Amino acid sequence: MDNVVVTGMQRISVVGTSGSGKSTLARRIADRLAVPYIELDAIHHRPGWKAMSEKEFRAAVADRITGDTWVVDGNYFGKLGDLVWSRADTVVWFDLPRALVMRQITARTLRRALTRRELWNGNREDLRNMVSLDPQRSVIVWAWQTHTANRERYLTARHAPEYAHLRFVRLGSRRETDAFLGEL
Question: Which residues form the ATPase AAA-type core domain (predicted)?
């Protein structure tokens, strides 16, 4: 974990590769700080896995981040740009090794598909998508393909002048995550 003082965090963006555990981490942070939790996937994915239009998505997210305190869970830079980061004061980057992320996302996807657990708006993971090589259908392939790009994006963003107002916290292990949460 980067050396960081955790006091003063009020508007937090939690990012990382799909399957890293960022949603669980974001919920835990929101619970510890007693602030609203905003899950971008739940906003973006309408029934039948239909994506919200970029314009509607930006408006819905902009509306939810007007408050003084929140934790936003998710990436979505392609659709949101720096909308969330322009209001955030902290970015928590869950940067687990690719091999661990792949084990986690495979197990999670299988568990969700077998139990038919509802994710958002009636959507459920499908076993057929586990064997698809299409990253738009398989979250496992998506995680594999985006892991390196996410790491490069966040490594670069930490030193970008447009994000100088942000405190970056990079968590690279469960131990670092537990220590970080213990300081909240």
Answer: 14-61
Total count of domains within the chain: 1
User: Which residue has 């909240």 as its token pair?
Assistant: 184
For residue 103, the one-letter residue type is: R
Nearest to 143 by CA among 90, 101, 80, 115: 101
Domain CATH number, residue 174: 3.40.50.300
Query: Are the C-beta atoms of 113 and 130 separated by less than 8 Å?
Result: yes
pLDDT at residue number 115: 87
Asked whether residue 137 is assigned to any structural domain, the reply reads no
Of 92, 96, 103, nearest to 180 (Cα)?
Answer: 92
pLDDT digits (tens, 9 = 90+) for 131-155: 777 777 788 888 999 999 999 999 9
How far apart are the C-alpha atoms of 176 and 122, rounded to whole Å? 34
**Alpha-carbon distances, residue 24 vs 137, 158, 174 (angstroms):** 22, 23, 12
pTM, to two decimals? 0.90
